[in-house]
Amino acid sequence: MQSNILLNTYIEHTILKPDATIAEVEQVCNEALKFQFAGVCVPSYFLETPVELLQDAGIDIVTVVGFPYGYNSLLSKFEEAEDAINRGADHIDMVINIAAVKNNDWDTVENEIDTINRLVKRENKIFKLIAETGLMSEVELELICKIANDLKIDYLKTSTGINGPGADEETIVTLRELLHPSIKIKASGGIRTKDVAIALINAGASRIGASKSVEMMG
To answer: Catalytic one among 77, 125, 128, 186?
Structure first.
């Protein structure tokens, strides 16, 4: 158990609500600067704001692709990821095709992850797969982790925070057992307190995605 965790260095300060305003995104960026969070996660529409405000601050600029349901076409996700990278995103957090998983269409699942992972790696950026763990069966999660291992993705992220349960310690422990040690885990979804965040880090998470980040620092 780590007791001397510098929590700010794990947090990706997040605003992904559909009615977000530029003023709120600016506030998130300023809070990230104040607390020196590891990153900010914003919708791609707002990328110009963190690119401008966080220039040379050492704070990762993160955005989402296929958010929040993941059943967009591969072409749509590819263009979304490519555009986000061209506009300054450092990390691409892509929602897995949940519908394909639930219909046992593993060829589509694997091809999509492989394609977007290759695109992101080619641009020397970081790829995170949002597995929406709260909706997945034990077998589905095992197969997702096998694909992640085979394709050597950078991170597996638990949740969008919108569909089903978010991150919990048991899930993080399970993922850490299933994933290759080189693949990091981002815990996200419903993380509202410092104690919960630290517990998830101790369970194996390398990043925490949260909108209640400032409250956690209190």
So the answer is: 186
Instruction: Give the list of residues 6+ apart from residue 202 with CB closer than 8 angstroms, or none.
Output: 1, 2, 5
CA distance 2 to 67: 33
Count of Cβ atoms closer than 10 Å to residue 218 Cβ: 5
Q: Alpha-carbon torsion 153, 202, 173, 178, what sign?
A: positive
Total residues belonging to the chain: 218
Cα 184–Cα 126–Cα 174 angle in degrees, nearest 5: 20
DSSP-derived pairing of the beta strands 11-14 and 60-65? unpaired
pTM over 0.85? The answer is yes
Would you call 77 a catalytic residue per the annotation?
no
Q: Please, what are the domains in the chain?
A: 7-216 (3.20.20.70)
Reply yes or no on whether 146 is catalytic. no
pLDDT per position as a tens digit, 162-178: 998 999 999 999 999 99
Q: What is the DSSP letter of 43?
A: -
Contact 78, 65 (CB under 8 A): no
